[in-house]
């Protein structure tokens, strides 16, 4: 997913680094990647990118291929910072406030529709690729309202736990409200000929929310597939046409959300509709709205995931506003001060690249980016030669099958420090780049 507009490359690769616009072998799917590894790119116009992407036809997962781009085509933001779910932290903090189970479920949906507000208010873009062991932390996101102990804060910690395939673990915490969430982020992408279809990777089982003050009431939110199109027009856009699910095993409430596709003719409406119903068994087999028995329905959802959404409850035709996205924008994120950041902390690691891009010194930005990427390759080769297996620092060895990462002792300390203002961490003994 590249940012627009596409401009001519002025990059100067460093010796031994992957030249911008080339595909390097990741060690998996070697046959598919070998035909691409010598590809060079001249980004002269948007349609050029479409020509590049057509060479990916037949590659099962282009998200697992290292595709090095000129720096002027990158959004100057680290990947781990970009892929977070706290664009509106107050919707996360307020999930467990109501004593009514249906209202709490609706609170989960408010968080769901605001977690990626950056895609509603902005355009898709390509951030920096994460390096192994890189981490990002938000020290506080103050939400409206006070508690007896002070302002409500939500903290976020994420770490790149695997590079092949690219997987990161995350943990969100709001102690004042007793709400936490965790999960693995991984995407799979395939070029279809006119668009890129992005689906959750095999290790991405969704977002898992826990309400500690509600008897550990938990929710699982699965991700829909997304299509990235607009290459011919030169303006990239996201289109969602899929079904996803929100499930609470304790209350036996489940939502089926169906994102409806738009016609090629006319303005996109980005419609979504759904039902919340009371299920009677763990695996009820229901995958579509039309299969939900009407007697089980508790509420219905309808609207635009880019504008306003409403709900109606059982026994009433009155529409209630679920969330109005029109006046909302992503909240700025506050990180530890620069002198408290470690070298492998996202903003610190990519600081030179970001400064060069903002200064439009794309040659230097690409050179610095290539140095980071080459350093990562060298360290990976050294570990392979020595038979050393990489271990994450802030999360336990990946429990990928469960989909719910566990914080390590260092992870718990880092998260606690975000809430107490103690941002000091000892440098890692081993880094991935």
From TrEMBL:
> Which residue intervals make up region (Disordered)?
1-28
One of the record's GO molecular function terms: sterol binding
Which residue stretches does the UniProt record annotate as biased composition, category Low complexity?
1-15
Q: State the InterPro entries in the record.
A: OSBP_sf (IPR037239), Oxysterol-bd (IPR000648), Oxysterol-bd_CS (IPR018494)
According to the lineage, what is the superkingdom? Eukaryota
- A GO-annotated cellular component: membrane
Pfam families xrefs: Oxysterol_BP
Family statement drawn from the similarity comment of this UniProt entry: Belongs to the OSBP family.
Protein's recorded name: Oxysterol-binding protein
Top-level taxonomy: Eukaryota, Fungi, Dikarya, Ascomycota, Pezizomycotina
């Amino acid at each position: 997913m590249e940012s627009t507009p596409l401009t001519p490359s002025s990059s100067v690769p460093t010796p031994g680094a992957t030249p911008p616009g080339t595909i390097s072998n990741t060690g998996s799917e070697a046959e598919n990647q070998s035909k691409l590894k010598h590809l060079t790119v001249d980004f002269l116009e948007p349609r050029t990118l479409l020509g590049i992407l057509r060479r990916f036809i037949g590659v099962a997962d282009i998200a697992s291929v290292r595709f090095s781009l000129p720096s002027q085509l990158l959004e100057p933001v680290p990947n781990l910072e970009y892929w977070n779910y706290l664009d509106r932290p107050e919707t996360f903090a307020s999930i467990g406030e109501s004593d009514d189970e249906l209202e709490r479920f609706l609170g989960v949906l408010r968080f769901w529709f605001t977690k990626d507000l950056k895609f509603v208010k902005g355009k898709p873009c390509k951030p920096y690729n994460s390096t192994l062991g890189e981490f990002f932390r938000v020290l506080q996101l103050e939400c409206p309202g006070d508690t007896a102990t002070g302002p409500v804060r939500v903290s976020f910690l994420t770490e790149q736990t695997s590079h092949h395939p690219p997987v990161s673990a995350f943990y969100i915490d709001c102690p004042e409200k007793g709400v936490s969430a965790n999960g693995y982020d991984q995407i799979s992408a395939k070029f279809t000929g006119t668009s890129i279809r992005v689906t959750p990777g095999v290790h991405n089982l969704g977002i898992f929310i826990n309400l500690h003050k509600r008897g550990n009431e938990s929710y699982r939110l699965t991700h829909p597939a997304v299509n990235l199109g607009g290459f011919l027009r030169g303006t990239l856009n996201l289109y969602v046409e899929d079904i996803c699910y929100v499930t609470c095993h304790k209350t036996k409430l489940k939502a089926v959300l169906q994102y409806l596709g738009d016609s090629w003719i006319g303005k996109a409406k980005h419609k979504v509709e759904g039902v919340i119903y009371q299920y009677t068994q763990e695996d009820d087999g229901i995958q579509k709205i039309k299969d939900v028995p009407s007697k089980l329905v508790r509420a219905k959802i309808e609207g635009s995931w880019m504008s306003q959404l409403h709900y109606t409850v059982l026994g009433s035709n009155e529409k209630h506003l679920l969330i109005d996205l029109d006046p909302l924008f992503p909240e700025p994120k506050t990180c530890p001060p620069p002198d408290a950041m470690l070298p492998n902390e996202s903003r610190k690691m990519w600081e030179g690249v970001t400064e060069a891009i903002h200064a439009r010194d794309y040659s230097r930005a690409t050179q610095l980016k290539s140095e980071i990427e080459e350093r990562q390759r060298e360290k990976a080769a050294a570990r392979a030669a020595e038979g050393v297996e990489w271990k994450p620092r802030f999360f336990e060895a990946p429990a990928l099958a469960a989909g719910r990462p566990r914080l390590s002792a260092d992870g718990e300390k880092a998260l606690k420090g975000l809430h107490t203002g103690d941002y000091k961490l000892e440098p890692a003994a081993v880094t991935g780049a």
